[in-house]
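Module 6 notes. Inverse folding takes a fixed backbone as the condition and produces residue identities as the prediction. Think of it as a translation problem where the source language is geometry and the target language is the twenty amino acids. Below is one complete input and output pair. Work through it position by position during the lab.
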């Protein structure tokens, strides 16, 4: 077990809750090995069945065509159909104008399908999928670490495997080519803005199964074998997340995909604002049916504990100005010189045809100013593009966060999430230490529960939160259904997670993994 090996090496501190989860994941891996074999055999049988059925279908059609040509239709009817169907079909053949269009073809199709069931047999049954795991617990309790160990271990065992963070899942749903090519507006955002609530939900139900079918398996891939989805930080922050994730995850689970997910909350506690309650409850029932829920009950933030146990090279320089800034620039020169490249400016693709200008880059190393990344209307798509293209990211001028710049703070948290999820090396210059970064300034604290709960951004006579729960559209044309209006407690989770991850990103264990895990080195 990899977990025990890391404990023996002194890289992790033993925790009984973590060991229990590691054992559960190891047992699931064993079940997946057998499931992969079962699914391979199933897909072979399914392909054979589909080929036989199609061949028999063609044979029956040719026979019917030959009988029609010989004028022997009545003999065929008399031989193969009941008296009721005989009269109906015979009249249809002789008096097509007296029968509802399409009914004759539908009856023929149904009878042909029944014949095929008799000749070829029923579709082979898929083997039952092993139950997945839904891991939840406090920030820094080891959920993501354990899931990532498991995901790495599935390589070579499970054919179709994907690991996503919440932001990536949302963007994948939005940019799905299947959705983009529908006869609606070009993006789901515009579509949600244009459609009425009832129509939106009905269309979602039709769209999401097709999106889900392409979520794990590319069009060019062989569909044989098992599939597993590792999903980090499940959240239901808005109407879109609830409706879309419910549809896609439910579809994947129903079709045999095994899910391993992490979250700060138990499934039933994900939707504390009560948005789209009926859809949400069905989603929770599906998770319970297909996943075992496991609480990692540790109150210890192990990222912080690991950081305290090791002497590590500092990559977080504070306060701004003076020697901190000099150390920051000195590290930039050292790391870029080691890469042996030339510092250039470049443009990287984002999504929806957008691009992002990077003024300083060198062989997978990029330097940015905080205001450029978080002081403009950019988001997860931009941060994912940066995280995928740069294994080392320098960010200068990070201020202490306060209520006055709360939007910047939210963007910064999303940026940290993506850099962490892609295992980037991060070097920062900031106004305060990591622990004090989110505590606010004289202008006000960043987290003010009363201010969050009673924020009066009004939609007519309703608070924005009430409008969001209904999934309606604001008078200003902004689709509130896709705005992440997090509750105060969700904000606290996010701030604590960012601090915890910033601390871990300074540790030798994390930094050693950059070259092994970052996408830049997998090309």
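Target side of the pair, the amino acids:
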């Amino acid at each position: 077990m990899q977990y025990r090996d890391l404990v023996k090496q002194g890289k992790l501190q033993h925790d009984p809750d973590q060991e229990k989860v590691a054992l559960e994941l190891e047992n699931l891996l064993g079940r997946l090995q057998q499931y992969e074999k079962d699914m391979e055999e199933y897909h072979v049988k399914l392909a054979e069945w589909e080929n036989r059925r199609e061949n028999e279908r063609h044979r029956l059609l040719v026979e019917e065509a030959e009988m029609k040509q010989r004028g022997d239709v009545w003999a065929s009817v008399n031989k193969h159909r009941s008296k009721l169907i005989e009269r109906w079909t015979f009249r249809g053949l002789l008096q097509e104008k007296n029968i509802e269009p399409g009914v004759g073809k539908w009856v023929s199709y149904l009878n042909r399908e029944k014949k095929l069931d008799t000749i070829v047999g029923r579709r082979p049954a898929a083997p039952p999928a092993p139950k997945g795991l839904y891991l939840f617990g406090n920030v820094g309790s080891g959920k993501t670490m354990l899931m990532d160990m498991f995901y790495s271990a599935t390589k070579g065992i499970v054919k179709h495997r994907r690991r996503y963070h919440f932001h990536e899942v949302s963007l994948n749903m939005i940019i799905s080519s299947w959705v983009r090519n529908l006869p609606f507006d070009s993006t789901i955002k515009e579509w949600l803005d244009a459609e009425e609530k009832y129509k939106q939900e009905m269309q979602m139900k039709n769209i999401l199964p097709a999106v889900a079918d392409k979520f794990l398996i590319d069009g060019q891939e062989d569909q044989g074998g098992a599939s597993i989805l590792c999903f980090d930080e499940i959240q239901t922050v808005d109407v879109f997340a609830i409706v879309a994730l419910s549809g896609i995850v439910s579809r994947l689970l129903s079709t045999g995909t095994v899910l391993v997910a992490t979250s700060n909350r138990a499934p039933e506690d994900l939707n504390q604002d009560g948005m789209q309650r009926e859809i949400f409850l069905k989603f929770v029932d599906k998770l319970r049916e297909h996943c075992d829920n496991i609480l990692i009950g540790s109150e210890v933030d192990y990222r912080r504990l690991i950081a305290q146990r090791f002497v590590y090279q500092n990559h977080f320089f504070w306060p701004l100005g003076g020697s901190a800034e000099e150390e920051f620039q000195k590290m930039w020169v050292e790391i870029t010189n080691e890469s042996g490249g030339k510092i250039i400016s470049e443009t990287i693709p984002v999504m929806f045809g957008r691009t992002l200008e990077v003024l300083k880059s060198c062989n997978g190393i990029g330097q940015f100013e905080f205001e450029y990344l978080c002081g403009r209307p950019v988001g997860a798509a931009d941060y994912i593009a940066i995280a995928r293209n740069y294994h080392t990211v320098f960010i200068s001028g990070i201020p202490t966060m306060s209520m006055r710049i709360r939007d910047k703070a939210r963007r910064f948290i999303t940026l940290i999430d993506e850099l962490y999820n892609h295992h980037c090396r991060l070097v920062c210059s900031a106004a305060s230490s990591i622990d004090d970064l989110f505590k606010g300034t004289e202008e006000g604290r960043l987290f003010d529960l009363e201010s969050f709960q009673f924020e009066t951004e009004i939609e007519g006579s309703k608070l924005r939160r009430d409008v969001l729960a209904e999934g309606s559209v604001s008078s200003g044309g902004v689709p509130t259904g896709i705005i992440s209006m997090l509750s105060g407690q969700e904000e606290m989770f996010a701030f604590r997670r960012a601090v915890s991850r910033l601390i871990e990103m300074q540790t030798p264990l994390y930094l050693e993994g950059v070259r092994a895990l970052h996408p830049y080195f997998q090309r």
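Reference fact for the lab report: The chain has three domains: 2-33+128-296, 45-120, 312-522.
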